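2024-03-11 09:14:02 INFO queue: dequeued item Sugar transferase, len=214
2024-03-11 09:14:02 INFO validating residues
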Amino acid sequence: MDVYSILKRLMDIFGALVGIIIFSPLLIGGALWVKIVSPDGPIFADIKPRVGKNRAPFKFYKFRSMVMNGYEFLKNNYPELHKKYEENNYKLSADEDPRLLKGAKFVRHYSIDEMPQFFNVLKGDMSIVGPRAYYFYEVEEQCQRHPEAIPYMEEALKVKPGITGLWQVSGRSQVGFLDRVKMDAFYAKKRSILYDLLIILKTPYVVLTGKGAF
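2024-03-11 09:14:37 INFO prediction written
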């Protein structure tokens, strides 16, 4: 393990512990919110494994902000929206998504649903800073649509995904897939402790303003 990797892991452990302590009210509040508005379902979203470093699958912790079996719910009850969802790279704005729980727009706008990822960092599945974690189906389908993205994707998957990162502070959902994967590949090549710190410093503004959130 090189010096960068050692420093990166130490920074991740320290950052995750500090994050859990500082944001413990939001972590507790987020869990209580899910159980209040949707008591019959789990606290964490039951989502498919995400793609980790070198394509290793891992369980991604995130507060549930949708009804149970959201994909089937949308497909069976809102076929036109489901079609739009698939055509729009599996995205719907919060204003038009019928799957969202009461209050989910606020929770997502301020990234409260993302807070449990500090535990992913402690486990070593993620870093504080890195590319946004992809779904396996997303990698496969989007690379079929955009073959030119394949070399960028291969570069991006050489590093751990992060809670925040270049894409996350550069527009998030406003950025298309190809530009996103180019940003992720750029970060993977350029990565350094100083670059990580710069991205971390940019993150509070993005979270507080909800810039680029769906």
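2024-03-11 09:14:37 INFO annotate: The chain has one domain: 3-65+101-209.
2024-03-11 09:14:38 INFO item closed
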